[in-house]
Amino acid sequence: MSWITLDKINRLKEKFDFVQVNENDKGFHSVEVPKENFKQFLKFLKEDPDYQFKMFIDWTIIDHGEKADPRFQGILILFSPEYRERIIVKTWATDETLPTLTDMWAGAKWAEREAWDMFGIRFEGHENLVRMFMWETYQHHPLRKDFPIRGYEEVELPSLNEEERADQLEGLQNYSRMHTALPTMEDIEITQRKRLPKKKAQIVLNWGPLHPGTHGTIWFLFDMEGEYVQQCDIIIGQLHRGVEKLAENLNVQQIIPYTDRMDYIASINENHSVCVAAEKLLGIHEKIPEKAKYIRTMMAELSRINSHLLWLGTYALDLGALTMFLYTFREREKLMDIFEGITGARFTINYFRVGGVYADLPYGSLDAIEHFLKDFPERLKDYETLLTRNRIWLRRNIDVGIITEEDVYSYGLTGAVARASGVPYDLRMIDKYDAYGDVEFDVPVGEKGDSYDRYLVRVEEIKQSVKIVQQCIQKLRKMSKNDPFFFEPEDKKMKITIDGRGTKLFKGEVYAGTDNPRGELGVYIYMPKDGIKPYRFRLRSGAFYNLQIFPKLMIGRPIADAITILSTIDPVVGETDR
Amino acid sequence: MGIKKVGLNRTVQPQTLKEKVLFLDFMKGLRTTIKHLFRKVITVDFPFELIEPAPRFRGVHGLRNVDGTEKDDFEAWVKKLKIKPPEPGETRCIGCKFCQAACPVPEIFVIKTEKLDVPEDHPYHGLKVLSQFDMDLSKCMFCGLCTLACPTICIIHTDIYDLSTYTRNGWVLNKETLSKIADDFIARRGKEKYDDKSNWPDWQKIWDDRDTARAKAWDNNPPRLGPNYADQH
Description:
heterodimer, A: 578 residues, alpha+beta, Beta Polymerase, domain 2, Cytochrome-c3 Hydrogenase, chain B, 2 domains, five-stranded mixed sheet, three-stranded antiparallel sheet, B: 233 residues, Alpha-Beta Plaits, two-stranded antiparallel ribbon, elongated
């Protein structure tokens, strides 16, 4: 497991007398630093050759409830690429303020805006602390513990049924007429003005929120001088559903169907993250039955192929190659059939459980997957003949949107975007969760970090996924049909069920995640005591942090590059907005 | 395990002068598209042609009736919850509300039981029957947790996927409708999905391999299904 050792933490304590060490019996040790010394301590962590925690992972808040004083705690997760270790640094947000980290890690910019939006924490020194998901005139901070789960019902909004049948609504159809606040056109205008406070150039072009090129409901603002972008900002949140808030009121198996709706293109991988994190918190990640491990690895890789095929198709479609879209969707259809047969759903899958999977593979599934893999490499070759060395493709991709290695660390970029810039950051290699420690595969790494490298890296990832799936099939073939696919705890204190009723989490905290097609989806669970519902359930979305670099890449580029850059960053709005 | 370096000049060669002048990259691309021109149609002509969903498909719910294929502990559950012993053809639901407890959106369900109005010397005195079982499918995620929680395999997923209606009220299904849906499903495809103790058997197939519509999507060359594991037949 890639976590900082107790040894190294204790050395920190010797050096700084204000450092407080929280030991954790599962190995996830963290340090606590007072607010005044926070920046100084982080500077040391980032620059000291023995630590080198220069990669930003996540920066969020825990609300300890109204009665606690101080009430809010900042949680910073960092990664050291040199030593392949993570660390959690905590600090108390006295007076509901914290120092900004944007001068050390650019990735903190959106993280702090999100913290302000959701918790109402002010960051001193932030350049433009506006809301992240909600509109500017919204009054509340939804992730605070005193915010009710149904929200404050403030606006009257009769339903369509009432128009038809007036007051004669009964039973399940008798909805409340009051609705939570909705933004008006005025509110949206204020929001837009606040995002680009100083206009630099002549015209502000709005792209989205409902445009096929944005792959979802993202709203871009381009401040343009002629064809060239001078300033850019992104308004997201149109698809914000408050998954983190919902998760605080559910048991961990019930959260899994909600994560299906986040990155809906690779929902298996989203489920995987929650399972891996919860298993680490329970301490059972090594006791998961072998069969479940291989099934999960296999399904996660099939899902990665599925997701990359959709990305390839729509990316080529955006750049004008319509044929590719049809070709990749044909292969995707077969994968969807396989998912439907094995899991019961084509899109929102909910197959993985904390402790394994919910059912064994049905008869013939390995044959179907093998049949798919047999002619898939040939198809992949077709795609590459169409695109890889095509002169239009080369011209539109090479040297567009170059991301340097420094950017990767500073913005906390993960997934194929990071790997294309030459950073071999892959959780499958670092954490070796499930069966990834036992299968052979390579991590593709790019050179320059331009759009073309991101394309090549993702295509190579598809090939590596095929390799992993084949190895999993070989392994599964040798198993018995009576092998367990779900972990049955012997420990009386632990309760895990397939249907989720009464599944318990233990006291402690954990940060774990999986490498999804769109970057690392990390799950941070904080439990002050044993219980069913997680106290704080933070989803560190890879697509969210990857999208953050988009305004930087766009500055000085012509507007036509927006499509290329957005497609190769490949965000899914369900995951960025959560 | 290792790192594979990709990139222009690493794994991909830049275009040569010959390629540039003779437009060979376009020619190669055209050859691929022309090759694909002669393939057979793979799309399904919906709604004139329908793919049969897989046995595990999570469609509209149904409530199964007693038909002699209950689990062994069915009677014990009936006794435990003081439900009137159901006759064949009556619902298997024992009103335990496990489905509601497992559901991420518990407002979907309205489940009520009521005591039988019989004289004191009647054998069914003090026992209950299910009086209401409403499901609002407009709130449902079709995650399948309720079917896993059901101790009597009463609530099941069927293969029905078209549940659009003109009013929201059409999504609220009562216990009679749900029973009818389940009966219809079990008559059509019960043998494919359940064994004679209502468990998922290991012969349960990934999908029906004689489905011609699905075969079209697989280039008219569908996989031949065989056992997964070494000791499976």
